[in-house]
Design goal:
The complex is a heterodimer of chains A (about 375) and B (about 450).
Chain A lengths: L6 H10 L3 H8 L4 E5 L5 H6 L3 E4 L21 H11 L8 E5 L3 H14 L3 E5 L7 H22 L5 H24 L9 H12 L3 H16 L10 E6 L6 H8 L3 E6 L4 H4 L9 H11 L16 H9 L4 E7 L3 H4 L2 H9 L5 E6 L6 H15 L1
Parallel strand pairs in A: 1-2, 1-3, 3-4, 5-6, 5-7, 7-8
Chain B lengths: L15 H22 L4 E4 L5 H6 L3 E3 L1 H10 L3 H10 L8 H15 L18 E5 L5 H9 L7 E4 L13 H26 L5 H24 L9 H4 L3 H6 L4 H19 L10 E6 L9 H7 L2 E6 L16 H17 L22 H10 L4 E7 L3 H4 L2 H11 L3 E6 L9 H20 L1
Parallel strand pairs in B: 1-2, 1-3, 3-4, 5-6, 5-7, 7-8
Helix pairs in contact in B: 1-11, 3-5, 4-5, 5-6, 7-13, 8-11
The chains are: A alpha/beta (about 375), B alpha/beta (about 450).
């Protein structure tokens, strides 16, 4: 492995060449497991001696092949990921893991296996409730996921090993939260686009290497002199994003994106896996109870959004930008309720819909600029 | 105000059973309204909630799926749908849910008065909201949205179905799935006891479940008789009774209805009473039909095409023996039976969650369709590609790929189930006319 660069430069390199490290590890004899979405803990993949690799899309490569197999009314992000796979982007992957997150993620699982023929495929079922029985069910699903990984890897996952891996991933989480905390400063020493690139890069690296990268970035960011002038502070909420383009667009319009409520963002890093006598109980707590993906029924009233107001308070947010992908039912059904909820406190909101292409970039830019101007 | 989008809006049906099913549906709405007036319990709920349990607790069930279909059939859904969209609900969201949200908004805006345009007198306000995590995301999300408007007790049933990688033959796996389903059903029973103040009556539920199973067997018998050539029972009649199958299982008049219908269809088979006098082609439909335009089946028939089979809501073969001593366990076992039975068909890989505790599959495997091509003597497939129902429309593209390998013609009609705004008579008719020609060419080959 030749690693010449460090810190944010290294993060940017990985971000732009996401599979490079996984391909190196593959050449060194490791087996790589691609995963979509986040309910199937990568800790278990790592503990099995396999390398987890978060599958992402390619915002700049339109869907051309998936149309023949995957309906146009499904999530454009998942369609893009599937399209990339059909074009060979994941040919280095030995296995494919997916969880029952939303309709599109669940349903692409079979198509993926049917048309891409990974050596190993696993669908981890995820309950929609947080009842005691639902938590126990999810625990059983994770235990059988572990068994299935052991079968593929040909090695057992010991409790001790799993605990060590969980500690490694919790270090990821703590270091990421530390960086978010630095962004509470006004002005923040690290941009939202830098953070996005770092987190996407981290999702493509083994956890130990991500820890090294995070420590380097933390040192680098702490050493920065005070940032540019104060600007409106934005929280970005919504569907998955795995490119910095949208965040950059907001920041180029004269605002700081200081915090987010998206996947590959706070949703993944906000909570540790707690240290429990049975480590599977800790995994259930982190990956089902604490993971605030709107696909899970987390209550009926607006209290389910309370954590967003905590972000708004803690990060001194001036305005919220909703980013919703077309056909994203879990987010789009919530939009009117969340608007109501934030409007009670007079929090300004901008709502942007996209089809994971940012094709109408100029129109979006105009709306974002007007919003930032209004906040300023 | 009704806004009719098609000259094919209203179907002409052939069976006496269709008239009876229509009347039972009307009476059901009247009874639901009466429950509302009398202060009895009315549950707004999504398919996936057991209608047998509602019947046990003397709760009138009002179902957005059915109300959306009914509003569409009465040509008024668009009013409510546009209302929901004006309130911020995106146009690609489930049109049943948009219809329900729009209805709610109008109801509350009028100060708690049922909107005048609502069909069959409308629905009374709910005393509880019941949903589930099955089939699709809009079930939970749509009801969270309804919770903006209704301050009533709410419940969500969590019964995840095995996926195609689940080890269904491992008894440990069956144990934790069925245990979880039973636990959730018990949680629902406790909720209903608390809200209604009534005690769970196991003996009565045993009888209701027995009736429900018997009804399911009759429905399956009718589906089997649809294999007869020429077709004696077509899609317009099938979709005319579907509310009974999906939302009223376990009720004696529904059991009686299907006994009579089974006899009627049997007689039609024996007398060779064709729906299409000069039947040339036989198709299976996939997906949810355009409820605002069920006369489209009559148009197909005018072209010599018999809509001989329908994939959506197909009930499958019910188990011959079910131990009803513990009826909640029986519900779970029945669902497990269906899943394991269906998972054994080739092709299930692309529809990992087509099963529910009631008989309401949302998608269907390729292997099953291949078998139907022979057993139902099909010459083609018509897919209703419904824009706002991702759960049911998913898998159609894969099905087309697999069918093209066999040379089976497939027509895609891009529509919606309750939102009629994309419908166009000339476009649909020209597609069907061309499809008839394609089937003719395929026959010659």
């Amino acid at each position: 492995m030749v690693v010449a660069s460090k810190g944010l430069v290294r993060a940017e390199e990985v971000y732009h060449n996401r599979s490079q490290r996984a391909r190196e590890l593959k050449r060194a004899g490791k087996r790589i497991i691609g995963y979509l979405c986040y309910f199937a803990p990568p800790e278990l993949i790592t503990a099995a001696g396999l390398v987890p690799y978060r599958i992402t899309g390619n915002l700049y490569d339109p869907v051309t092949r998936a149309d023949a197999y995957f309906e146009s009314i499904m999530c454009p992000y998942v369609r893009n990921c599937f399209d990339q796979a059909l074009k060979g982007a994941g040919e280095f992957l030995d296995g494919f893991v997916v969880s029952h997150t939303c309709d599109s993620i669940l349903r692409v699982s079979g198509l993926w296996a049917y048309y891409n023929h990974p050596l190993y495929t696993r669908v981890v079922n995820v309950p929609h409730n947080l009842s005691q029985s639902s938590l126990q069910f999810f625990k059983n699903e994770l235990i059988f996921f572990k068994e299935s990984l052991e079968g593929f890897a040909g090695s057992q996952i010991s409790t001790q090993n799993l605990r060590e891996v969980i500690r490694l991933y919790n270090e990821n989480r703590a270091l990421v939260r530390g960086l978010y905390d630095l962004r509470k400063q006004d002005p923040p020493p690290m941009s939202g686009a830098e953070m996005m690139r770092l987190l996407v890069a981290g999702s493509c690296l083994p956890a130990a290497e991500f820890n090294t990268l995070l420590r380097e970035v933390t040192q680098e960011v702490k050493g920065r002199s005070p940032g540019p002038e104060r600007k409106p502070r934005i929280l970005v909420y919504g569907s998955i994003m795995d490119f910095d383009a949208f965040i950059k667009l907001i920041e180029d319009s004269g605002a700081h994106v200081v915090v987010d409520d998206v996947c590959i963002g706070t949703r993944v890093y906000a909570h540790d896996v707690p240290d429990t006598p049975d480590p599977f109980d800790g995994l259930v707590k982190c990956y089902l109870e604490d993971f605030v993906c709107p696909r899970t029924g987390r209550g009926w009233d607006n209290a389910r959004f309370d954590y967003i107001k905590e972000y708004i308070r803690d990060f001194k947010v001036n305005g919220v930008v909703f980013y919703a992908l077309n056909f994203c039912d879990p987010h789009k059904f919530d939009i009117p309720s969340l608007k109501d909820y934030l409007a009670q406190d007079g929090i300004p909101i901008l709502y942007i819909e996209d089809d994971y292409t940012l094709a109408n970039l100029e129109a979006i830019k105009t709306r974002v600029q007007a919003f930032v101007e209004m906040l300023g | 105000m009704a806004r009719q989008v098609s000259e094919m809006a209203f179907p002409v049906r052939v069976t006496q059973g269709a008239k009876r099913a229509y009347q039972i549906g009307k009476d059901w709405y009247a009874q639901t309204l009466k429950y509302g007036e009398e202060g009895k319990h009315v549950a707004w709920c999504m398919a996936g909630i057991s209608p047998e349990l509602l019947y046990l607790f003397d709760i009138a069930g009002a179902w957005p799926e059915n109300f959306g279909a009914t509003c569409a059939a009465y040509q008024v859904a668009i009013n409510f749908i546009e209302q929901a969209e004006a309130d911020g609900y995106a146009s690609e969201l489930c049109s049943y849910e948009r219809n329900m949200l729009g209805y709610t908004i109008e109801y509350l805006r009028a100060g708690g008065v049922i909107p005048g345009s609502a069909p069959r007198g409308g629905l009374p306000k709910p005393t509880m909201l019941l949903t589930c995590g099955l089939i699709c995301d809009p079930r939970i999300k749509g009801f969270q949205a309804l919770a903006r408007f209704w301050d009533v007790p709410m419940f969500s049933l969590d019964t995840p179905n095995p996926t195609y990688t689940t080890e269904i033959n491992d008894p440990r796996v069956k144990k934790y799935y069925v245990e979880h389903w039973v636990n959730e059903l018990k949680r629902l029973v406790e909720f209903l006891e608390k809200v209604t103040g009534k005690r769970y009556d196991e003996a009565r539920l045993q009888q209701i479940m027995a009736d429900s199973l018997e009804t399911s067997r009759l429905i399956y018998e009718i589906a089997e008789m649809r294999k007869h050539v020429p077709s004696v029972f077509c899609s317009e009649d099938y979709f005319g009774y579907i509310h009974l199958q999906l939302f009223m299982l376990g009720q004696p008049q529904v059991l009686e209805h299907f006994r009579l219908l089974r006899d009627e269809v049997k007689e039609r088979v024996e007398k060779n009473m064709a729906v299409v006098p000069d039947e040339k082609y036989r198709i299976c439909t996939m997906g949810i039909p355009p409820w605002y335009c069920l006369g489209v089946f009559n148009y197909m028939e005018s072209l010599g095409i018999a809509p001989a089979m329908d994939q959506v809501y197909y009930i499958g073969k019910p188990p011959s023996e079910v131990d009803l001593s513990n009826p909640l366990q029986a519900m779970a076992e029945k669902a497990w039976h269906k899943i394991t039975q269906t998972l054994s068909y080739e092709g299930i890989e692309i529809c990992p969650e087509p099963f529910t505790i009631p008989d309401n599959p949302g998608a269907w495997p390729v292997g099953q369709m291949k078998e139907w091509l022979d057993s139902y003597s099909l010459t083609g497939i018509v897919q209703f590609f419904t824009r706002s129902c991702r759960a049911v429309s998913f898998g159609q593209a894969h099905m087309r790929q697999e069918m093209s390998k066999l040379g089976v013609p497939v027509l895609v009609l891009e529509i919606d189930m309750a939102d009629p705004r994309t419908w166009s008579d000339p476009v649909i008719k020209s597609q069907l006319n061309a499809f008839r020609d394609v089937m003719e060419s395929a026959k010659r080959r």
